[in-house]
Amino acid sequence: MKRLLIILPILSLALAGCFREPYADAYITPSLAYVGEDIHFTNTSSNTDYVEWDMDDGTTSSAFNVNHFYYDPGSYYVNLRAFGHNNDVSVASFVVDVLGSEIEIVVMEFFDEYYVEGASVILYATYDDWLNFENPVGEEQFSNQYGECYFSNLSYQTYYVDVWEASHDNWYLGEDNPEQWIETQQLPGGWDHTFIAYVNYYEPTAKKSAPLTRPATRELRAPLKSSVDNLPLKDNKFSIKKEKK
Q1: What are 111-165's pLDDT values in tens digits?
Q2: Quick one: which of 47, 107, 159, 239 has the most CB atoms within 10 Å?
Q3: What are phi and psi of 72, to 5 degrees?
Q4: Do 221 and 119 have their domain in common?
Q5: Angle at the Cα of 126 from the Cα atoms of 138 and 239, rounded to 5 degrees
Q6: In terms of Cα–Cα distance, which of 182, 171, 179, 177 is closest to 226?
Q7: How many angstroms separate the CA atoms of 134 and 157, rounded?
Q8: Do 225 and 239 form a contact (C-beta atoms < 8 A)?
């Protein structure tokens, strides 16, 4: 009888240990990430049969540990749900801050390769937007004396570059080969990206009638261009990974 009294408490404790409540927790590296950079979500949850991640960008996962990257900059509110034996649940929330990418645009005349100062530069997320002057990304920028202007807080994607100046633009170049002349490289954060936006010079006769402000539609520009058929290819996309501090 004494032996039975000793065993029963031990069994009671063992059974209680099988039904401990789940506890959700994790740690995240890096704590501050760039768009396109893998973030490691290491799960340290306990007493859980399975977990669910909600990454706050439309992505979910039931993997215990998750590697994930974000396309767009911003703050994301990630939820980890840990489910226990009796379907009870523990929730842990994390804020993940993601920095955007940057790009330097250099406006250069295609044939004589001189810098074009004062050119209007606009980015578009899609080729259709570029064609139709719709949904520009960020603010219009203007090139300096070295043909340079800069865009920041960008997403992990390619962009389409529109350039206009009273005697130059890149419309015919873009028509000749959009992927080469107006589409940037993919833009992960944490890299120094440079895109040379080559432009065509208006013929002197056309220049006299060139508008002094950006035309509202491409049809107004078209008569001002000279032919740029059979262009030689040139390197115009450069990316160098930044050293981590």
Answers
A1: 999 999 999 999 999 999 999 999 999 999 999 999 999 999 999 999 999 999 9
A2: 107
A3: -115, 145
A4: yes
A5: 70
A6: 171
A7: 18
A8: no
Domain end (from 99, 131, 156):
99
Give the angle 174-178-183 at the CA atoms, nearest 5°. Answer: 105
C-alpha span between 220 and 108 (Å, rounded): 22
Residues 157 and 221 in one domain: yes
Please check whether residue 162 is in contact with residue 151, taking contact to mean a CB–CB distance below 8 angstroms: no
Question: Could you tell me how far CA 200 lies from the centroid of its own chain?
Answer: 29
- Predicted structure pTM score: 0.85
E strands within 60-207?
A: 60-61, 66-68, 74-83, 89-99, 101-109, 120-124, 136-142, 148-154, 160-165, 168-169, 191-201
Q: Render pLDDT for 80-122 as a digit per residue (tens, 0 to 9).
A: 999 998 889 999 999 999 999 999 999 999 999 999 999 999 9
Q: Identify the helix (H) or strand (E) that includes residue 223.
A: none
> Do residues 150 and 139 lie in contact, with contact meaning Cβ atoms separated by under 8 Å?
no
Q: Are residues 139 and 237 in the same domain?
A: yes
Q: Could you tell me the two tokens for 93?
A: 């929330």
Same domain, yes or no, for 124 and 237? yes
Nearest to 102 by CA among 206, 234, 242, 235: 242
**How crowded is the C-beta side of 78, counted as CA atoms within 13 Å?**
30
φ, ψ dihedrals at 141, nearest 5°? -120, 160
Cβ density class 10-24: b for 16+ within 10 Å, e for less: eeeeeeeeeeeebeb
